[in-house]
Write a structure and sequence with these properties.
Distance between the termini: 117 Å
Oligomer: single chain
Shape: globular
CATH class of the largest domain: Mainly Alpha
Number of strands: 7
Order of helices and strands: EEEEEEEHHHHH
CATH topology of the largest domain: Arc Repressor Mutant, subunit A
CATH architecture of the largest domain: Orthogonal Bundle
Helix content: 40-55%
Number of helices: 5
Strand order of the largest sheet: 4-3-2-1-5
Strand content: 5-15%
Length: 202
């Protein structure tokens, strides 16, 4: 559900879900327990909520209704404390608390009361429409130079971990010498034993 699927009709209270267009107008469904449907003809003024703005005194001149609804939700949550019996001062304080720059000459107290009523209807039926959507953080890709530098670094680390050829050669030579020494010792022992036996025989 999106705000562009919700409409208000001049002269009719509440909000309506836009179902589909017809030859004579558009089929609307009341957003209330009755879910009453009717065709809003060309003679009825239908306002889609995402196309409505509230007048302001800043350079922009207005603020989208969707943004105002998000501000109300951020400050008041589920309950605005505004009712049909709220005074004009309460209505004015309510809107100025979330939109201090609203145009007090163009926005009437009846408009603020209608805004609070719309908010209550959406809160009860489509609360997800009142929460501002978070924008996904853009993914940052490594620059070509940085990627090349990381690749070179990885190759250097790999080379550093591998034993140097000279070290390998020295290690092999040492193993060979130890092996030859081990082979020579038994032969020397055998010769010494033979010499001793010969001396005894003499």
């Amino acid at each position: 559900m999106e705000l562009r699927e919700v409409a208000a009709v001049s002269g009719r209270g509440g909000l309506f879900k836009i179902l589909k267009p017809t030859k004579n107008g558009v089929i609307l469904e009341a957003i209330d327990p009755s879910k009453k449907r009717f065709v809003a003809g060309a003679n009825e003024r239908v306002s889609i909520l995402n196309e409505i703005s509230i007048y302001t005194t800043d350079k922009d001149g207005s603020v989208p209704l969707e943004s105002v609804l998000h501000k109300i939700h951020a400050k008041y949550g589920a309950d605005t404390k505004i009712t049909g019996k709220s005074s004009n001062d309460e209505l004015g304080n309510f809107l100025s608390s979330i939109l201090p720059e609203y145009d007090r000459e163009k926005v009437y107290h009846s408009d603020i009361k209608k805004l609070a009523n719309w908010y209550a209807i959406l809160q009860a039926n489509f609360p997800e429409l009142l929460v501002a959507k978070k924008e996904a953080a853009p993914k940052t890709e490594a620059k070509p130079a940085e990627a090349k530098e990381e690749k070179v670094k990885a190759v250097k680390e790999e080379k550093a971990e591998a034993p140097a050829p000279a070290a390998k050669k020295a290690a092999a030579k040492k193993v060979k010498e130890v092996s030859e020494e081990a082979t020579e010792k038994p032969a020397a022992k055998k010769a010494a034993a033979k010499k001793t036996a010969k001396a005894k025989g003499e």
